[in-house]
Every structure is written in C-alpha cells, then in structure tokens.
Design brief:
Number of domains: 2
Distance between the termini: 48 Å
Structural class: alpha+beta
Organism: Celeribacter indicus
Domain HTH araC/xylS-type: 192-271
CATH architecture of the largest domain: Sandwich
CATH topology of the largest domain: Jelly Rolls
Strand content: 15-25%
Keywords: Activator, DNA-binding, Transcription, Transcription regulation
Helix content: 40-55%
GO molecular function: DNA-binding transcription factor activity; sequence-specific DNA binding
Number of helices: 11
CATH class of the largest domain: Mainly Beta
InterPro entries: AraC-bd, Homeodomain-like_sf, HTH-like, HTH_AraC, HTH_AraC-typ_CS, RmlC-like_jellyroll, Tscrpt_reg_AraC-type_HTH
Length: 280
Amino acid sequence: MTAATLFQSEILAPGEEFHFSRSVLSRARPKALHDQDYYEIFWLHNGRARLVTEGGRMSLSEGDVVFLSPGLPHGLQGVGEESHIVNIVIRPERIASLVARFPEISSYFPAAGNAPVQFHRDIRHLSRLSSSAKALEAAPRSALYLEAFLLPLIAELASEARGEAAKVPPWLADALIAVESPAVFRDGAAGLVAQCGKAHAHVARTMQACLGQTPSDYVNRLRMDYAARQLKGTPDSLTEIAEEIGIQNMSHFHRLFRTRFGMTPRQYRVKHQKGVVQPL
C-alpha cells in the first residue's frame, strides 16, 4: 500500500501541544497506509481492531494502549462490533523535552520509524485511564495538562514493569544487578551472560520471556545511560566515553546513542553541559 503523510501543522493549531479525539473505526480494510510527522497515543475504549503496518498486523482488543512514532506507515481497521478509539496527537518537540528530563521514559516513545509499543490495561486501569482522558479532553491544549496526563500513565506502566522484573529467576536478578557496573557491561552482552553462568541461548530466552528484551538491548541501554551521565558530568571526549563503555566503533556508538536519546552525543552534551569547557 502507498503511504500518504499527515502533518502536525494540519491538525494542531499554533500554540497547541496536543490534539484529542474520539472516533469509531471503519471495518473496511485500509486502502492505503499513512505516515505522520508527530507522535501518537491511542487506545481501544471498547471493541477490537487491527493495526496494519508494512511489517504485518497487530491485533488489538479493548484496553490496548499503543504508542506510535513518526515515520511509521500504518492504518487502523475495526473488527466486529463498533470499535471506539481514543487518540492523542503530540508534537515531537514535546516528547523530546519529556525524554530529555526523564530519560527513563524513552522506551515508551520509539524512535522515528520503529515498531509501536503496546500495553494492555485491564478494566480497573482502563476506568482510571478514561477518567484522566476526560480531564485532558476538557483541558487547554498546553504542555502542563498534557504532562499531567502522560507522566502518571507512564509512571504506572513503569511501576508494573518493575513488578514484572521482580519475577525473574534469582540467577538472572543477580546478573542484572552485576551488569550495572561498567566493568561488566563494558563487555557487552557477553559480560551479562558470563554473570548468569548459563548458555547464551538460555539467557536470551529467559530475558525475552521476563523482560521483553535481548541481552544486547538490555546492555546497550545501560551503556547509553552511562554515556549520557558522562556527557553531562565530565569533560571526557566522545572517544574516551565510548571506550569506557566498551564500544570501539564510533559510528556504532553514535547510532546507539541517537536511538536511545533522539540526538547525537555532541548535541546531548551541548544541551546538558553548558557550563563545562568542551574537549576538542
């Protein structure tokens, strides 16, 4: 399917940070996918639906919440009885500002073109979400009210994720504590696997089941978070920081950092380290 592009300038009025809408999905198969230059959060208030992307189809049911990035061609199709959807369009600059202040929330807002992030809310959580949505719907379209809606939702999701992480087997829990150390994560996924004392394939299967991440994904996130702290708090050169976290290839370092934070290491340093003399 050919993808058309939707632009935030066509949806958001000047000064508006978000757009809120409710609609009933058509049961007709999307004739074309559409791309967009904004972030989007939507959930099914009731009914079922399909999220269609170039990579396949994602089945959705009542209570499913989806975070969509810019640059991901997609379409939505209702399934069965009326499928009611609640949708929030958000300026990418607003998301970038949130992630800069709260780096731990970046996993909820995938980089441009990346696969959507999906969560399910049970009837109790969906009721609370609906109440928060009603308040947002009636509020001014400002950053204050958007953040008052987003941050509690993400904090709730993060709290649940920590609860799930507590279910990991003891050998993995111990390894996840050990790998927080640069001396361990400097060796990448191999350093984490070595701490587990298990075969790589077994560690990978267990992490995927318990955490939804591969060993490489988990370790690279720790590496990039450490690199970000060094960029903010030290005058060390980019090469020195990359070497400290065990990455010799600077192109790979830049790619991982941009995926994690949405900007290059140098841009991140300029933004967060105004008062420190920068190395050449």
